[in-house]
Predict the 3D structure of the following.
Amino acid sequence: MPVVDFHIHPTKDILPWVYDWIEGFLPPGEDPRRYLEKTLTKEGIVRFLDENGLDYAVALAEQNPRCSGVITNGELADFCNGVDRLIPFADVNPHLTAAPARELDRCVKDLGFRGVKLYPVYQLFYPNDRTLYPLYEKAQDLGVPVMVHTGTSIFQGVRVKYGNPLLMDDVAVDFPDLTLILVHGGRGFWYESAFYLARFHPKVYLEIAGLPPQRLLEYFPELEQYADKVLFGSDWPGPHPKKNIQAIRELSIGEEAKVKILGGNAARILRLLNNT
Ligand SMILES: [Zn+2]
């Protein structure tokens, strides 16, 4: 089974507090600007994948000019072009995109994107807002997953009320064939709600980027029983995947569950095994 990081940000245009956050994960003295410059090239990102033991990584577009940074769908397409181990996911900021469904259609059909990520807490919208329903319908028709940030964020300008995973219950019920991924597993005070939705809805998954892996069993005591519904992600260039993968391998759960979480489930959702 491949090892898949479902959550990396190859964003060059970032805000000052994001550099500070990245610096906290680097060896002492390493400058985050230099680190990103050398890693966010085609050679650099392949080296990153190799050094971290990743077969694939989902690379996320983001249009978060207030809170974190910007890499447009077009820029992400260029970055991923020729690097088959990167799987591009679009971002459609509903405040910046007049027709989110049409933008997703373009990204999937013209640019080869494999899904979309929404950032409600950065972009200030409720993810169950009816105006987004055409986007969900499009994703369901195209057969691509929708990732949604749930839970807290430490970046400036965030409004955490938009991060309640229970808002996604509406979407899961109204779009039963849509694969929904609850990013950060409801981080902070919604772990139980996020886990419940992943357990209850057949097409809803829990993604664990940005969570300390050694505390996963504390947040999700039934992790092993529902390992089919859990996806590993790092949130790099925040936490580095190698360290977190190692910590997951050391959890006191069965080997089969670890293989599913670290890439087996992602390979199924993203149909990686048919493509290789
Ligand atoms: Zn992230």
Observations:
- The domain at 4-275 is CATH 3.20.20.140 (TIM Barrel).
- The pocket of zinc ion is lined by residues 7, 9, 209, 235 (CB under 6 Å).
- The longest strand covers residues 180-187.
